[in-house]
């Protein structure tokens, strides 16, 4: 008889640690293979996962998906992607992680894939949307067994499992290249003001010296900082450091999760904020007014699917067709000013600018055969319907007031 095997999304935190014995005891699997996917978490997280796996006697695979994830983050820049103001770090990483785990599971001849998500969050949905494309069984022990954190802590103690309260301290943290998110414990009270020490990527805003940084874009993708070409991972890491020193890219928000729950979330995303700000500034120079207006709808749809973990949806492909066409001209540079804990565009340049300095200038008479006086006819027509409609309303009101009873009902 062959042994049954399950691949587990493994981080070494409390949830995934208790999943290891549970998959054997409760689900009857002979072997658990842990899979950790590198999407830019700090090195300590891998060390912790490694130690925990060793102590549990679990064989683990580490898959490096940083480059692939960084490419997806830059696609998100082309789509000016955010969800309720947060640049989607966790959401964008999940399909990448899920696919990497599925690939290992198939390679290793596993019968099932498992995650340690609860039944309350978004990640269960994002993982399973990818996994259910395969024939493997999908297992969610925490959700299916209805486990609480307290129960898990007790179970871990009874079974002598290597956990130290899980995930390093009070907060539940999810980190990748694009963002660091902090939630749970005292932060669950929306009115609790977070202490400075929840932040690791961003220094206290407003304390750094003002700095200018030039970002170069090619077809909507950022490719260089201060004229120096960089691959996507290096560019994002470099900007996280730089913008983080200025305290740029903090979000404290109420987030509407897919299942309808509202949760209080805190995020840090310095590079994402800088790149999204710069990209939008360049689009402002290059795209026509109607392209910008329509693209807002396209970007919002792209962001919604990304939040749902469905970047592989046919709709996203179709939206990207539109995005790609507009981005053919989004090539040029943007200068960002980091000042007072903010970053804002202070210069932009592109050979594709939809801009005529002489047309917009106060100093020129005639441009492209159009003189100032040519606007007179347009100015006469402007607001014509509003004048007609409001005039008719006013006339009716006056006629009613002129009636013998002064227009009163009875
Ligand atoms: N709520 C966020 C999302 O669904 C991310 C939550 C990240 N998890 C955490 N433990 N901080 O995108």
Give a written overview of the molecule.
This protein has 410 residues and is α/β, with parallel strands linked by helices. It folds into three domains: 5-174, HUPs (Rossmann fold, 3-Layer(aba) Sandwich), CATH 3.40.50.620; 180-358, Argininosuccinate synthetase, chain A, domain 2 (Alpha-Beta Complex); 366-407. Helices cover 42% and strands 20% of the residues. It contains 14 helices and 16 strands. It has helices at residues 14-25, 43-56, 66-78, 89-107, 123-131, 141-144, 149-158, 232-245, 270-286, 289-307, 314-327, 357-360, 375-381, 384-401, and strands at residues 5-9, 31-38, 59-64, 112-114, 137-139, 172-175, 180-183, 211-218, 221-225, 228-229, 250-256, 262-268, 332-339, 342-349, 366-367, 370-371. The strands form four sheets. The chain has a five-stranded parallel sheet, with helices on both faces. Strands 10-9-8-13-14 form a five-stranded antiparallel sheet. Strands 6-7-12-11 form a four-stranded antiparallel sheet, with no helix packed on it. The chain is globular and about 85 Å long. Arginine (ARG) is lined by residues 90-91, 122, 172-174, 181-183, 255, 265. ATP binds at residues 9-17, 116. It catalyses: L-citrulline + L-aspartate + ATP = 2-(N(omega)-L-arginino)succinate + AMP + diphosphate + H(+). Keywords: Amino-acid biosynthesis, Arginine biosynthesis, ATP-binding, Cytoplasm, Ligase, Nucleotide-binding. Residues 5-162 form the Arginosuccinate synthase-like N-terminal domain.
